[in-house]
């Protein structure tokens, strides 16, 4: 009976707690407790949603890339501090608004165009310079992309470039007057007379006592501090090393060539211009004029008021089906059409024809054979890598792995991050940069793991000893300390003497008179600009020279010497004679303007299509545990 009573009371207690919990939801807001769905959209653009998981995946890829670039891990707190998550979301929103606009405009990118873009990407080429399927898949794996995700991302990027290039057309060159004004400032020049006097010609440094040197050594530790150095044992196995001992037969070479024939085939292409008309009759009228001998460009411009579109070089899939068929059936110099598409009636002027070209096996035999050897070497490397991992799992270190698997081991003495010894030797020469990166990222005693490099090589690094940065004992560097102290004292005394010489110049003495007292020569430098000429002019002294007029003088110190300068003439630049440089500068200005237009375009499209950010979903995606951001 007592048990039944206790059970009944327990049920009522639970019910009461549930009631209190429901009331708290009502008081504080259900969303605050329930939160958002696991894959709720962090942003909505028009009818498109950017799901939390897709956003997190893209952010993780960006963090991974930045970590590799900076050679240090980027944790969530740092990523938040530098605004990385906001940048990623902003980029995804930009892609979404451009995708919305492309859909409204009926734009798209064909599978063939995407495939060509991938094949031509140098990041996916193998050791022979051809597209390497293994490299492609490995690069995607490391970047955290599936093949489908990457293809769609690339397709979107190509589509974005189409829209943005259209919107920024005509901005390749900035305003010529602005370019000329900037160039005139850059090319304004001075004719100078220069007197360079070594510090020891102006003053004599005193002899330091022991206390002064020790104090200098203590107050200026950086020049006398040995950098951190590390030693290592390294195993490096490269595909090309294994490939040297691999043989392949002629039949294997022939079979591989046939399987890869598309790689050795240059597809047919055409360089074309086109005009699009609203109806077939208008296109026929223009074609009739062309057949009468009127040039294509003129006939089109007379009929439409604008020049035809220079499409450039295209493949069969780069134009609508009927238009492409007509263009590839025409010969060089001929006009194809009218051909109908969703956009209207096309006339296509074929200005250049390139037929399909297949490289014969005789021309690529060595490359195919080398690829086969490398493929087998990479296969062998997978086995070696597995065996290395097995040995490491059993507790083996680099020396034991090298001995068991008969691999070459490299003993690297203590080196700096640049791979140098304190004496300036370079025992790391020939090692990949990843070896030094791993050496300075790991600590002695850390678990070992082999890594596969971009070229397919296997790298295993064991950090053996860490020599921390340390101020070298005074007794070991006394000579260097004394030399540095004398240089500093001498420079200060020489600068004071130079100031007296500047006063003499202001008083009317010539630079030649002063030079005679030191048995020194006055040099002349003509056409000195703000960026070039007279290398003895340091930044501050060069600025001072360009703030003065003809007949005035200036002075300053450089390493080991003092310099006096007299301005003989000021020459304004005639930028009309620098058309190429003006055009180059205008191009830089145009790039800046293009970026401004791009940002304006994106903001306009955001406003037009509507962008909504789900701040709670964003916060939960970036900081699900509520450690760094306010929930």
Molecular structure report:
- With 631 residues, the chain is an alpha+beta fold.
- The protein contains 24 helices and 19 strands.
- The strands form six sheets. The protein has a four-stranded antiparallel sheet with strand order 16-3-18-17, with helices on both faces. A four-stranded antiparallel sheet has the order 12-5-14-13, sandwiched between helices. Strands 8-7-10-9 form a four-stranded antiparallel sheet.
- Strand 17 and strand 18 form a beta hairpin.
- It is extended, with a radius of gyration of 36 Å.
- The N terminus is likely disordered.
Tags for this entry?
631 residues; alpha+beta; four-stranded antiparallel beta sheet; 24 helices; 19 strands; extended
Topology summary:
Blueprint: H1 2-28, H2 30-34, E1 41-45, E2 48-51, H3 52-70, H4 76-81, H5 84-105, H6 111-119, H7 133-143, H8 147-167, H9 176-187, E3 189-198, H10 199-202, H11 210-219, E4 225-226, E5 229-237, H12 239-243, H13 250-259, E6 265-266, E7 269-277, H14 280-291, H15 296-304, E8 309-314, H16 321-329, E9 335-341, E10 344-354, E11 357-358, H17 361-393, H18 398-405, E12 409-415, H19 433-441, E13 451-452, E14 458-467, E15 470-471, H20 474-506, H21 511-517, E16 522-528, H22 539-545, E17 553-558, E18 561-571, H23 579-609, E19 611-613, H24 615-622
Helix pairs in contact: 3-5, 3-24, 5-8, 5-23, 9-23, 11-20, 13-17, 14-15, 17-18
